[in-house]
Write a structure and sequence with these properties.
Distance between the termini: 61 Å
Strand content: 15-25%
Shape: elongated
Order of helices and strands: EHHEEEEHEEHHH
Radius of gyration: 29 Å
Oligomer: single chain
Number of strands: 7
Largest sheet: 4 strands, antiparallel
Structural class: alpha+beta
Number of helices: 6
Helix content: 40-55%
Length: 202
């Protein structure tokens, strides 16, 4: 299921919402198909053969449903502000890392994973946990690039905010005062008093 937007902060946007690679379902899926095929082959045989095969099919079905439920409830989300990882249904686990705390984003692919277009994401952040592995996802290099772009965009926004918060120079403050006086927000006497203080700082 998609990551709920109600958990986003104001102005925060989702860039990526990933689930584990489809190969995560291959093991239990193959076991289920094999058990069903075997059940069809022995359906006309005696009960002492059919019942164990049906029991095996039920176990394979439960394994597949459990794995699918975990797959569909696992989210690796990249937003404009942070990385979010959520997993589990009954027992939930999660991790959130602000983009400014990310030190390195890399991936690892075995030969088999390269053939499938999958790879393990490795995230290194400031804090006690250090580097963490977040399972196998499709197109890990593209994900790595998206994370780096998001980090650069967040750093640029922070720089703009810091620049906007800088203290105005005395001359800029004089211009603001003149604007306030013309709008009638401050009186002429207040303007002259504040102007004198600013001129003393020049």
């Amino acid at each position: 299921m998609p990551f709920p937007k109600k958990y986003l902060n104001e102005g925060e946007e989702i860039i990526l919402d990933l689930r584990p690679h489809w190969f995560y379902l291959v093991g239990p899926g193959s076991a289920l198909v094999a058990a069903l095929v075997l059940a069809l082959l022995v359906r006309d045989r005696s009960e002492w053969i059919l019942f164990p095969v049906l029991a095996l099919a039920v176990v394979a079905l439960l394994w597949f449903l459990g794995r699918y439920t975990k797959w569909v409830t696992t989210n690796f989300v990249l937003t404009s502000d942070r990385l979010i990882y959520r997993s589990g249904v009954v027992s939930r686990q999660g991790r959130e890392i602000p983009l400014e705390r990310l030190n390195d984003v890399s991936f690892h692919q075995s030969l088999f994973q390269r053939l499938l277009g999958a790879g393990d994401l490795l995230i290194e952040s400031g804090g006690e946990r250090g580097q963490e592995q977040f399972g196998s996802f499709a197109h890990p290099q593209d994900t790595q690039n998206e994370v780096h772009r998001a980090i650069e965009a967040a750093a640029a926004r922070d720089a703009d905010r810091m620049a906007g918060r800088r203290e105005l120079s005395p001359l800029e403050q004089l211009e603001k005062l003149e604007e306030l006086r013309q709008r009638g927000v401050i009186t002429q006497a207040e303007f002259e008093l504040k102007k004198a203080k600013l001129l003393d700082r020049l």
